[in-house]
Specification:
Helix 1 (20-35) links the parallel strand 1 (7-10) and strand 2. This protein has helices at 20-35, 54-67, 91-103, 114-128, 198-208, 221-234, 265-271, 275-283, 297-303, 318-331, 334-346, 358-365, 372-379, 391-397, 401-415, 421-435, 439-451, 459-466, 468-481, and strands at 7-10, 39-42, 107-110, 155-158, 166-171, 175-180, 188-190, 213-217, 240-244, 247-248, 314-315. Helix content is 46%, strand content 9%. The strands form five sheets. The chain has a three-stranded antiparallel sheet with strand order 3-4-7.
Length: 483
């Protein structure tokens, strides 16, 4: 049963972009907080000083803002009781608790260099053929720096309790998980420069921020055990944990930006996926609600809980994402889709903002378009001057009797008092009946003349969207071509 007012956090490392996996974690935490009237907190674990630049932080914020995952507490929404929300601004806090652990004998200084540890690890793994290295306890009982070493060069390690024992927790997704103390070593809490490592910093922050639930990817399961040992050493009650399934790329390997460009949330904005569709797609990578596929945000908030999260990895399916995007073209008001289409048209050199044809264009093209990029490509023929004819289509539909039918249609179109769909369709019908041919024999030459090819929305809609003057110019050019 969820607490009445849960406090859940999303704590990314700002290293250049918002990862799809991170977006899913943020979404799950956001929905859990909203469903139960709690607080969604954003905290930046920015201790990787080379990669955690202001630009990297902005990339996280931009991604969350685009997805509409607004945080209740965090950067720009500081609560003086819990902030600051950047780990690099909390170094004194980490030092204070580290000093307490040192004084109580629950941590110790380790003077082994990174190079020495690497050499030992390599030797152990080479001797065993495989397996993992565990710190031998070299500095476990030292009372001071060894010869040639200085205290300020030491890292701080957590002192694992002696003797047998186990540590376990009940995961909201995976159930009860247990590990023996013998599988854990004296892990590094803080570097010599005072920068906390993940297992240490996140425990201190989660406790001091009153976090009640930690939801994160399954790759962090093993991190939970040393963290629980730290909670115990400090006399603190740990939060609940939920470890989410991995997300795999189409090649069934873990989704990563190095191998999978689609791992970057903002790539999808640039390619014309709408935020509603991406969230809809992402929530289904690991969570389900019956057979529901198209899920609104309101339904997500109403339905979400961790009992619907599976333990098997979700697989990226680009076709499914594009299908969902098309469904959202039809679910959202045309005005909303039209507004989002404008930047894609402007990128193609068209002044589309405020154009009265935008909403009719969305209605005409949403059944044929999977992304805003595709919609803009198709819509381009309605904004530019002139059209490039497909030679195969022109040879078939702009020659012989077809040109004569096109000429007759042109005369009647030019004479119309109102350039609206009904009379435009009426011209096609009138000309076809007079010539005793099917309506397609008239519509196709018009369609090829004004779009350059044989596919478009209904001919009346197409003529309306191109506009009277431009449509007549294109028809005249086609007639001139055929003479």
């Amino acid at each position: 049963m969820a607490p009445s007012k849960p406090r859940v956090r999303f704590a990314p490392s700002p290293t250049g972009y918002l990862h799809i996996g991170g977006a899913r974690t943020a979404l799950f935490n956001y929905l859990y907080a909203k469903r139960y009237g709690g607080t969604f907190i954003l905290r930046m674990e920015d201790t990787d000083q080379e990669r955690s630049t202001p630009e990297s932080v902005k990339a996280i914020l931009d991604g969350l803002n685009w997805l509409g995952l607004d945080w209740d507490e965090g950067p720009g929404k500081e609560d003086p009781k819990y902030g600051p929300y950047f780990q690099t601004q909390r170094l004194d806090t980490y030092r204070k608790h580290a000093d307490q652990l040192l004084a109580e004998g629950k941590a110790f200084r380790c003077y082994c260099t990174r190079e020495e540890i690497s050499q030992r690890r390599e030797a152990v793994e080479k001797a065993k053929g495989q397996g993992s290295y565990r710190y031998e306890g070299t500095c476990h009982d030292l009372k001071g720096p060894p010869p040639g070493k200085k205290q300020e060069d030491a890292v701080l390690r957590f002192r694992m309790p002696a003797g047998e024992g186990t540590v376990s927790f009940d995961d909201k997704v995976l159930g009860t998980i247990t590990k023996a103390h013998s599988d854990l070593d004296d892990w590094v809490m803080m570097r010599a420069d005072g920068i906390p490592l993940y297992n240490y910093g996140c425990v201190i922050d989660d406790h001091l921020m009153d976090i009640t639930l930690v939801s994160r990817g399954q790759e962090h399961v093993n991190s939970t055990f040393p963290q629980l040992m730290l909670y115990k050493a400090l006399g603190w009650t740990p939060p609940d944990f939920a470890h989410l399934p991995l997300i795999l790329g189409p090649d069934r390997e873990k989704l990563s930006k190095r191998k999978h460009p689609e791992a970057d949330v903002m790539l999808h904005k640039r390619t014309g996926i709408m935020q509603e569709a991406l969230l809809n797609f992402v929530i289904r990578l690991g969570w389900s609600h019956g057979n529901d596929e198209v899920i609104t945000r309101e339904q997500m908030v109403e339905w979400f809980d961790f009992d619907g999260v599976g333990s098997t990895s979700g697989v990226w399916n680009p076709e499914k994402l594009q299908w969902l995007n098309q469904q959202w073209f039809k679910l959202l008001p045309p005005a909303v889709v039209a507004e989002r289409l404008v930047p894609f048209l402007e990128a193609r050199g068209f002044q589309a903002k405020g154009d009265a044809r935008l909403e009719p264009l969305v209605l005409a093209l949403r059944e044929r378009s999977r992304t805003l990029n595709e919609m803009a490509n198709t819509a381009s023929i309605y904004f530019k001057s002139g059209v490039t004819l497909d030679e195969k289509a022109a040879a078939k539909h702009l020659s012989g009797d077809s040109l004569n039918l096109l000429r007759q249609a042109r005369e009647q179109l030019a004479a119309l008092p109102a350039w609206t769909v009904e009379p435009l369709d009426g011209v096609v019908k009138t000309v076809s009946e007079a010539a005793q041919v099917g309506m397609g024999k008239v519509a196709q030459p018009i369609r090829v003349a004004i779009t350059g090819n044989t596919t478009s929305p209904g001919i009346g809609e197409t003529l309306l969207l191109v506009g009277r003057d431009e449509a007549l110019r294109r028809i005249d050019a086609a007639l001139t071509r055929g003479t």
